[in-house]
From TrEMBL:
GTP binds at residues 23-30, 84-88, 138-141. Belongs to the TRAFAC class translation factor GTPase superfamily. Classic translation factor GTPase family. IF-2 subfamily. GO terms for molecular function: GTP binding; GTPase activity; translation initiation factor activity. PANTHER family: EUKARYOTIC TRANSLATION INITIATION FACTOR 5B, TRANSLATION INITIATION FACTOR IF-2-RELATED. It holds the Pfam family GTP_EFTU. Keywords: GTP-binding, Initiation factor, Nucleotide-binding, Protein biosynthesis. It comes from Methanospirillum lacunae. InterPro entries: EFTU-type, P-loop_NTPase, Small_GTP-bd, T_Tr_GTP-bd_dom, TF_aIF-2_arc, TIF_IF2, TIF_IF2_dom3, TIF_IF2_dom3_sf. It comes from the Archaea. SUPFAM superfamilies: Initiation factor IF2/eIF5b, domain 3, P-loop containing nucleoside triphosphate hydrolases, Translation proteins. This is Probable translation initiation factor IF-2.
Amino acid sequence: SDKKSQSSSDNPKIRTPIVCVLGHVDHGKTSLLDRIRGSSVVSGEAGAITQHIGATVVPIETILAMGGVNKNLKFNIPGLLFIDTPGHHSFTTLRARGGALADLAIVVVDITDGFKPQTIEALQILRGCKTPFVMAATKVDRISGWRSFPSETFLSSFAKQNQRVIDLVEKKTYEIVGSLAEHGFSSERFDRVDDFARTLAIVPVSAHTGEGIADLLMVLIGLAQRYMEESLTLAVDGPGSGTVLEVKEEKGLGATIDVILFDGTISVGDEIAVASSTGVITTKVRSLLQPRPLKEILIEDRFSRAKSVAAAAGVKVSAPGLDQVIAGSPVKVIDGNENEVRESIEREMTEINVTLSPEGLIIKADTIGALEALCKELTTAEIPVMRAEVGPVTRHDVIEAETIKTPYYRSIIAFNTQVLPDAQDLLNEPIYAEMVELFKGNVIYHVLESFLEWRDDMKRHLDQKRFEQIIFPAKMVVLPDCVFRQNNPAVVGVRILSGKLRNGVNLIRKDGKKVGQLKTIQLRKENIQEAKAGDEVAISIDGATVGRQFDVNDELLINIPERHVKVLEAEMMSHLTIDAREVLDEFTRLYRKENPFWGK
Ligand code: GDP
C-alpha cells in the first residue's frame, strides 16, 4: 500500500515529508490527528489513507480531492506522513542525523483559549530545530454563533458566517498574531500570506466538523514543496535509515521495533545496526510488518508483510536480538562498511549538539533531543551550561553542582527525568540543601521561568550582602558643649549631616587630616549599630584627642577605602540619597586633588 502512494506521484524520487503535531494539552492535537486520519472517508476515497506503524500517510490525491485547491498546481511530493503520537516529547525524542525527525510541524492553539505555556514551548523547540511549521487555530466551531459546514474549506465556511462571528474570528486570530509577535514571529491568516518563508500561516480549523482541514493540509504541502524539496529528493533510494519509535513484544515474533524510516529503503534479509543498552548491535531483518487495511480485518494475522519498504514510512521490524534496543535510537541498513555504520550510531547516541561553558549550570534530560531543546533555550536566555547529559540526576551531579563557583549557577535542571534516591538524599542534607538548587519539570518554559526567578533573587541577595559590607559616605559636625571625654577614647556628641554612620569606620577632617577610628555609637546611652542623617548621637573615637586631631564645630567625614569608592561609584549610586552622593563627591575630591584617577 505504501508503494501505491509513492508511484502515483510525478516524481517517485521525492519521499513523503514527515509531520509532527505539537501544542498545549487539551488544545486538540489528538482530535486533529484523528480527523486527518479519517479524512479519506470525507473525500470519498476510502482506503486511500494508509495506516502505518506509528504513523499515517495521507496521499496527495486525497488532499487534492478535499477541494479548495487550484487543480492546475503541480505537486511533486507523494503525500504527508503524520506521526501518530502528538506532543513535544515525541518531537524531540524522534531524531534523524542529530536533528528533528519531522520535516514539518503543526502547532495547535485553541482559538478560544489562546497561547499557553506549551504553545510557547512548541515555538521554542521548532525555532531551535529550524523546522518549518503552520499554526492550526483549532476549535473554530466553538466560536459563539459559528454555523458549521462540515468538511468545507475555511474560507468557504467563513464566508457564510454572520458579521458578528466574522468579527469575532478576526479578533481571535489577531490575538494569536499578537502572541506570535511577542515571541518574534510574524504571522497572518494563511489566505493573506504572500511569502510563506517570511510569514507564519495561521489556519483556523475544527477537528470536530472538519472545516479548514483541507486548507491546513494544503499549507503543509506548500511548505514542503517550497522549502524541503532538496532534502526530500532521492531519499527513497539507498540504504534505509530510520528512528526507533518503540520496542514491542509481539506474540509469536518476540521483540520487534517500530521504526519511522526517513531515508532510503529497508528490505527483508538486510543487515541492520541499532543501539541497545549493551551497545550497538547488528542483526538481520526477518520480516517487515505493516498494519492490515481495515477491510482485511477477518484475516487472523494483524500484520501484512512487505519484502521492502521505502521512506518515509512507519514499519515494524522483526529480527533476532532486539529486546534491549533503546527507543529513539537510529536504525541503519548496513551497506558496505559495518564499522562506519556502528560508529555513526554511537556518535548519534552520545553526541550532544550543545555549547558548553567552563562555568554554568548542570542540566539532565531523558533524551538527547530534550537536552538540546532545553540547552538552546538556555543559550538564548544567555544562561551558560557547564554540563549537559542524558539520564537521571545522580549523586555525582549534586556533588559537582556544589563546587560551581558562581552561587547563582549552583543548580541542576532535571528536565523530563528522575532524581535518583541517593541524589535526593544528598540534596536533603543541610549543606547541599543550602548550596544546590534543583529545578524539575517537563515544560521548558516552566523550568526556565523558575530558574530565572531563583537566579534573580539570588543575585539580588548577593548584591545586598556585598553592599552591606561597603562603607557608606557620611558627614557629621561635632557639637559644642558635648565633649564627654577628652581622649582614650575621645567621646563627643555629633549630629549626622548626611549619609549613614556605622561602627568601625575611620574619620577624617574636611581638609583630609586623619582623626581616628570610630568605636561605638550611642543614642540615649544605648549602643546602636547605625546612625543616619539628622540623628544626634555620642561617638567614641580611638586615637584622637579633642583639641588636637579635631575640635568642636569641626565637620568630620568617613574615610572610605579606595576599593569601596569604586563599588559605590560603579554600582551603588542609585542606592545613595542625593546628600550622600554630595558627601561622596566632597570626599573623593580630597583624594583626587593629588590623583585624579583615585578610586576609578
Ligand atoms: P490534546 O490534549 O491536545 O490531544 O487534545 P484533544 O484532541 O484530546 O482535545 C481536547 C478536548 O477538546 C476534547 O474534549 C476534544 O473533544 C475537544 N476538541 C478538540 N478539537 C476540537 C474542535 O475542533 N472543536 C471542538 N468543539 N472541540 C474540540
